[in-house]
Amino acid sequence: MVDQAEYLRKLVSRDTRILMIASGRKEAGVSNLAVNLAVQLAAREQSVILMDADTRGTKYPVHSLMGVLPRYTFTDMLTGEHEIGDILTNTPYGIQLIAGVSGMADVADLGSDQRKRFIDGLEKLSWVDYIIIDAGAGSTEHIVDSILASEDVIVVVTPEKNSVKDTYGLVKGLSACPRSIIPNIHVVANRVISNSCGRSLAEALQSAAKRFLSLNVQYSGTVPEDEYVRKGMAASEQIPFSVRYPHCEASLGIKRIVEEISHQRVTNNRGSGVSGMIQRLFMQ
Predict the structure, then answer these.
(1) pLDDT category, 68, cuts 50, 70, 90?
(2) N or C: which end of the chain has fewer CB within 10 A?
(3) Phi and psi of 131, rounded to 5°?
(4) Which domain covers residue 43, as residue numbers?
(5) pLDDT in tens, 227-281
């Protein structure tokens, strides 16, 4: 039987960018942000796969925000019932969705057959430019371990007092890990009254992380509070707001973040692409 190490050695990946979206608190808009970032990256002719790894659930899961209904989930691949190609759900927006990516931080507990399917399945995604992962919200050890699989994590913060506190708690949880395995941390301010307020909110988080945790956090943009986003959610339009209302303030904020992300370079040495993600998962 070929061992796990040999499977890892066989992985040959392009420079797929692995980007996790998370927050310390629910209702921060993580899924909405993940969907619209993925859609706008695809609009720039990037190949994008969006993974729904939010195990705690949300009022608006990523598939509902795009008006699609996945037939199969990641679990169906692990059980051997379907291949990775079967569980990819096409969307009208140039991206593909993988639903039900729960337990990503628990891959070391998989049986040998499931572990092989996990590695073989993700290896087949190495053609893609971006893998965006909706990690959901929380500061539990499980969320932190999932984040450690990524090269970059965007933590989403809103002006609500508890959101600031809980998002700082998430960053603090990451700071307890060895520095060599912590991903690049970015902050995006969501649902703020202006870009300047968003930057101030992010700078407060940056300052606290630097002073008390000795962590560098990069500001990556602001998504302003916008009546068109609320209008679309209330009407259950199931169309990403950056598509339905491309010129609204929130959509312009998303496009600025995508511009920022597109010009960023991964600065850590943790291993890039899909192979790097798999190795980090199995090292935990």
Answers:
(1) very high
(2) N
(3) -115, 115
(4) 14-283
(5) 999 888 766 789 999 999 999 999 999 999 999 998 876 555 555 788 888 888 8
Q: Is residue 6 part of a domain?
A: no
Backbone phi, psi, residue 236, to 5°: 50, 50
Number of domains within the chain: 1
What value does the mean pLDDT of the chain take? 87
Distance separating alpha carbons of residues 164 and 43, to the nearest angstrom: 31
Distances in whole angstroms, Cα of residue 181 to Cα of each of 138, 150, 152, 211: 19, 9, 11, 20
Evaluate whether residue 5 is within a structural domain.
Answer: no
Bridge partners, residue 234, by sequence: none
Q: Is the residue at 168 inside a domain?
A: yes
CA nearest 176: which of 131, 128, 144? 144
Residue 69 included in any domain: yes
pTM tops 0.85: yes
Residue written as tokens 């039900």? 100
The two structure tokens encoding residue 240: 């990403």
